[in-house]
Write a structure and sequence with these properties.
Elements: E1 13-18, E2 24-29, E3 33-40, E4 45-52, H1 53-62, H2 64-73
Helix pairs in contact: 1-2
Amino acid sequence: MARVCELTGKKTISGNNVSHSNRKTRRKFYPNLQEKKFFIPEENRWVTLKVSTSAIRTISKKGLSAYLKELRQAGKTINI
């Protein structure tokens, strides 16, 4: 699977390693993704998602259903 957050869409970005002599070589910056199980009380089921830690923090503040509703209003398509 790709290293992409299923909710926020965060993905790998590229940049440079910069040495002491200021030589630049390409590198990748990976998002901090975790596989986490969430319970959806409206549907009475568990869902496993690959999400970034910032999304986990937002879900624990707002709740999963409120966060999904907010994402759908912003126009993002979510397949859960």
